[in-house]
Amino acid sequence: MEPPDITVDGTGLLCVTLLLRLRARIADAAPGTIVHVIATDPAAPLDLPAWCHMTGHAYLGEVRGGDRPVYALRIAADARTTRPDAPLAPRRELTRRRPRACPMGQCGPRGVWCWGHLLGAPPAVAGGAPRGLC
After folding, report:
1. pTM for the complete prediction?
2. In the annotation, is 15 catalytic?
3. Of residues 94 and 81, more confidently modeled
4. 1 C-beta neighbours (distance < 10 Å), count
5. Among 15, 102, 107, 114, the one annotated catalytic
6. What does the domain layout of the chain look like in residue ranges?
7. What is the distance between the alpha carbons of residues 128 and 130, in angstroms, rounded to a whole number?
């Protein structure tokens, strides 16, 4: 794995706060910049790849060998922006209206999509989505 150009220390931060800090730190970063995110949030292995998928940045995976969990990503040249107050919500003017339910028909009502299905993961259980994803 390449050495980082930017390191974001998100120790003790949970999902939204971690992503807000990450977004602020990479705001002026050049495309191709390697970013390491130190994240102790147990949901980070799901949240970071989902955020990268949504914004267009390349998720490079977990960096092994340290005493704290570290995840790597590469800044994209054509990244999509999210709302300033909600890093997991795409800007309305940049996205089309999404359907009222998960495209796999197994997530919550009123357009609430789970991360697993946003990333294209198939359901692990026949006839229903795995618990924790929806």
Report:
1. 0.65
2. yes
3. 81
4. 13
5. 15
6. 6-85, 96-134
7. 7
